TrEMBL record:
Residues 33-123 form the Rhodanese domain. It comes from the Bacteria. InterPro entries: GlpE_sulfurtransferase, Rhodanese-like_dom, Rhodanese-like_dom_sf. SMART domains: RHOD. This is Rhodanese-like domain-containing protein. PROSITE patterns: RHODANESE_3 (PS50206).
Length: 124
């Protein structure tokens, strides 16, 4: 295959993968989960213990086993994820899309936006 054709194909495939990620502001982000929804908190375990959104599963995006852990999840589920302010969850969203997850929703502004909007959260 010609190198330039391969590069164009690769770029197109990459754009298709990332188009599955939807950034949602606090008013759009899911408050209640249905059976086919998963809520991921991609912050550190320490941050998670300080407060998290009810029903969130903590999988640290910076941990060495992040890809291994998320690979066990249902790729067809609606995946809602957040971090502190949105940066780490955006990177986690890209990783999920590259792994073949279909429905990814990233909380724009992260947990900080959730708390600042007066939404309820769990604190251990």
């Amino acid at each position: 295959m010609n190198k330039s054709i391969f590069i164009v194909f690769l770029l197109m495939a990459t754009q298709f993968t990332f188009s599955q990620v939807q950034d949602e502001d606090i008013t759009e982000f899911k408050n209640e989960l249905s059976e086919n929804d998963m809520l991921l908190d991609v912050r550190t375990p320490k941050e998670y213990q300080e407060g998290y959104i009810k029903d969130a599963i903590n999988i640290n995006v910076k941990s060495d086993d992040f890809v291994e852990k998320v690979s066990r999840l249902d790729k067809n589920a609606n995946i809602y994820l957040y971090c502190k302010a949105g940066g780490r969850s955006a990177k986690a969203s890209e990783k999920l899309a590259a792994l073949g997850f279909k429905n990814i929703h990233n909380l724009d502004g992260g947990f900080d936006a959730w708390v600042n909007a007066g939404k309820q959260f769990v604190k251990e």
